[in-house]
């Protein structure tokens, strides 16, 4: 079986923090990604869609073309199982997104790999939704931090 590592973790691991108060989150994400990559017993499932999403987030985060090219090439290593994004995945993602009101991109990350993942690592609280938990165990490796695109990291509390 494989593990899925959500895009937000890749982003925080590789993009330099813009605000000093979030340095710890970036370091924690970097340590997590590093440990996943070094652990020979862990293989990572990733879709062609998610590779593109990660590379675009890194571009927007200011990473150089050379660094992004290296990361892109590393996704071709045996550690990664690359799955294609198919039209039926998009249809399913749209249907689930329409019901849950969670943006379609989260579903597009997970649905192409749902048959082969045993763990989903994400700090996005959307992934605590039953749609994702029905696929596999969902673990936030940055807890108590919550990350969501378009906003800064927040500390999860019992009210969230």
Please provide a written account of the structure:
Helix content is 45%, strand content 15%. With 160 residues, it is of the alpha/beta class. Helix 1 (7-14) runs parallel beside helix 3 (48-60) and helix 3 packs antiparallel against helix 4. Helix 7 links the parallel strand 4 and strand 5 (137-139). The protein has a single domain, classed as 3-Layer(aba) Sandwich (Rossmann fold), CATH 3.40.50.1010. The strands form 3 sheets. A 3-stranded parallel β-sheet has the order 1-4-5. It has a two-stranded parallel sheet with strand order 2-3. It has helices at 7-14, 23-38, 48-60, 65-74, 87-100, 104-110, 130-133, and strands at 2-5, 44-47, 80-83, 117-121, 137-139, 145-146, 154-155. The longest helix is centred in the first third of the chain and has 16 residues, at 23-38.
List the helices and strands and how they pair.
Elements: E1 2-5, H1 7-14, H2 23-38, E2 44-47, H3 48-60, H4 65-74, E3 80-83, H5 87-100, H6 104-110, E4 117-121, H7 130-133, E5 137-139, E6 145-146, E7 154-155
Parallel strand pairs: 1-4, 2-3, 4-5
Antiparallel strand pairs: 6-7
Helix pairs in contact: 1-2, 1-3, 3-4, 5-6
How much strand? 15-25%
Coarse morphology: globular
State the assembly state of the protein chains: single chain
Largest sheet, described in full? 3 strands, parallel
> What is the number of strand segments?
7
Summarize the entry for a quick read.
This protein is 45% helix and 15% strand. The chain has helices at residues 7-14, 23-38, 48-60, 65-74, 87-100, 104-110, 130-133, and strands at 2-5, 44-47, 80-83, 117-121, 137-139, 145-146, 154-155.
């Amino acid at each position: 079986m494989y593990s899925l590592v959500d895009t937000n973790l890749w982003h925080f691991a590789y993009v330099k923090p813009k605000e000093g108060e979030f340095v710890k989150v970036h370091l924690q994400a970097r340590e997590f990604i590093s440990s996943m990559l070094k652990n020979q017993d862990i293989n990572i499932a990733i879709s062609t869609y998610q590779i593109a999403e990660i590379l675009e987030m890194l571009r927007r985060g200011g990473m150089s073309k050379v660094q992004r090219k290296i990361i892109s090439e590393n996704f071709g290593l045996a550690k990664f199982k690359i799955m294609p994004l198919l039209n039926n995945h998009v249809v399913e993602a749209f249907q689930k997104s329409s019901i849950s009101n969670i943006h379609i991109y989260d579903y597009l990350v997970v649905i192409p790999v749902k048959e082969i993942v045993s763990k989903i690592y994400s700090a996005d609280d959307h992934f605590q939704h039953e749609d994702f938990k029905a696929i596999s165990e969902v673990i936030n490796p940055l807890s108590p931090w919550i990350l969501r695109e378009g906003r800064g990291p927040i500390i999860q509390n019992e009210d969230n």
